[in-house]
Structure formats: C-alpha cells, structure tokens
User: What shape does this take?
Amino acid sequence: MHPCFFGYGSLVNRDTHTYTTATRAQLKGWRRRWVYTAERGLAYLSVVPDADTTIQGLIADVPNADWAVLDAREYGYDRIPSGNDVIHPRDTQTEISHYAVPRETWVPGGEQHIWLSYIDVVIQGYLREYGAQGVVDFFDTTDGWDTLVHDDRAAPQYPRAQSLSRQETTLVDQHLALRNVRVIPA
Assistant: This one.
C-alpha cells in the first residue's frame, strides 16, 4: 500500500500534476489560509487546525513512495500525518499526510500578495472536481482574503499556471469581488 498525500490547493487541479491515482477526499478539522513567508516571497495556501471545518481536496499516492521528492516540491511546508482526519474511499490503513506552512515562518503585514494565476489554477481545479458548490465551499473555508492579489493573467507568474475559459475567470472574479478582495495590476 502506497503512502498518500492530501492536496487542498493547486494539487486539486489535475492539469498541474501527473498523479494518476488522485481521488476526491476531505480533511476534517482543518481550514485553509493564505499565509506569507519570506522564504517564498508571496502568500501561499496553508491549513490551520479548526475543529469546525472540513475542506475538500484530493489524495494521491506519493510517487514511488518517495516523500523526499514531494517534500522538495512543497518546500517551506511541514509534512503532517493526517491520521484519521481524511475521509476517503481507499483502504482505511492508507497512510496519508498533508502539508502546512509552520506558523513560526509566517510574516504578517508588508508587501504580501497572491498571484491571480495561482488562485485561477486552484479554482479551476475545484470547479472541475466539485462543481460550482465546490468553488463556494473553497472560498468559505479559506481565510486571508485581505491579502493583495496581483493580476498577472496576461503574463502568469505562477509556475503551474493554466489557461482558463472566460466563464472560469468570471467565476473567480465574482468570488473575489464578493469578498472585497483588492486586485491590482502585477
């Protein structure tokens, strides 16, 4: 049995990876949050404990059961054993972990920003996996929307950026507007 990881951001967009074993799942007791770290130089999604929240995502086999390769992709994050917090359709003995940015590395204030192309990728994945309600759930279970968003759609800076349809970008823009997110030119 292969160990698995739970993805709750860009990994939900299957076009950003080659994890053919990806399966829908939920993580109980955690909530997403945009956090800024100096190591990455911008805000990335993380998770924080929250007993009242369950988030949707995907689980997938760790390629070749080699955590080191996945840990390198997720640099700046700690790998956390998920225990029984993941609801999934696989064997109950499956070892699952998820990643979170350690709180001691968070940097409040300053020139924090999120690339809009990053948000686009995440929302496209949630729309494809969970439909329009999945997008609503993503926004409702994610904090940190007071962070500036840089509109880099014309020249995406996010390394796993994807092309979105007009309907997809409109959906992203509508949800950002509902939360009064400040979007500025990149």
